[in-house]
Amino acid sequence: MNPKSAIKGRGAQQNTPNRFFELSHEVRNDFLEYCHKEGEKADKNKTLYLPVFPKTIVNKVQSPDVGMAYSMNMYQGCEHGCIYCYARNTHEYWGYSAGLDFERRILVKKDAAKLLEAHLKKKSWKAQTIVMSGNTDCYQPAEKEFEITRQCLQVFLKYKHPVGIITKNALILRDLEVLKALAKDNLVTVNISITSQFEDTRRILEPRTASIKKRLVTVKVLSENNIPVNVMLAPIIPGINNHEILPLAKLVAEHGAQSISHTIVRLNGAIGDIFTDWIYKTMPDKAEKVLHQIADCHGGSLNDSRFGNRMRGEGKIAEQINNLIALAKRKYFANKKMPNLNTTLFEQHKNGQLKLF
């Protein structure tokens, strides 16, 4: 991609049409020419934080592939801009594009902590791990300003309720003291996503995420403070980072990770067009090879929605990737595993009194 023509600091380089809208927005060449002559910018490339007011915050997860029963998201959209992100499609339900809008129109749920507390206090609710960031990263840049994730962690601590966290941002260390308090009663696990060990790869795949060095330090600091860390080598993208599986697994093990997990990239919905546009602009020499290898993992298609297959893929390339992950687990994580979180303390903290029976 020509650096002068690239949209700086963004993954997607376009706004794909919203599948729910009859009309679409197009930036015409004559408009671009007018802006050039007038010395104006056609696109200011600013991030907007837009408040939204949902009635609930905890979601029941229907997919059998993702290893969680309940999730919650403080933000919709994500400024990290990861080009492969499966969550991009959800932005269309809010009336936006899965492309640039997903990275620049961030919906902020300021009442998340109140909604969480109301959910936990329901008479029918029994303690089960709730995962923060089942969809978008709870420690994305917006969290610096709004601190909603921190407020929610304090609610989990107050009620002694188990919580899982998924992030690729070192900002999580800001809340180290709260995490240590949760870990003392075995109430928290953290999943750190690390897709590559090389900054050049990270910058183009995940433009506004924490550096690889910072993420490795995060794994180390959390582990040293007895906070269990799983590293997600996800997604594995054939032709881009599949050759890194063993060295990356070794690296995160040396920094204290207790386990690793992975997925093979799938380009569902609008992400297929967004990723294809991006890779022809950023890696034109690799584009055909990468796209063909991704398709090879999903029965000849970039997309795969089949439960049981969509995360692990099929075919020879997928088999090689899955075998490398299995080897990495045996080699670097033998006799290690993430703990089952404690669900026994919640009831007595839910209403402030112990049960007799």
From TrEMBL:
Keywords: Iron, Iron-sulfur, Metal-binding. The keyword Nuclease does not apply. Pfam families: Radical_SAM (PF04055). It comes from the Bacteria. Transmembrane segments: none annotated. Residues 64-301 form the Radical SAM core domain. GO terms for molecular function: catalytic activity; iron-sulfur cluster binding; metal ion binding. This is Radical SAM protein. It comes from Neotamlana sedimentorum.
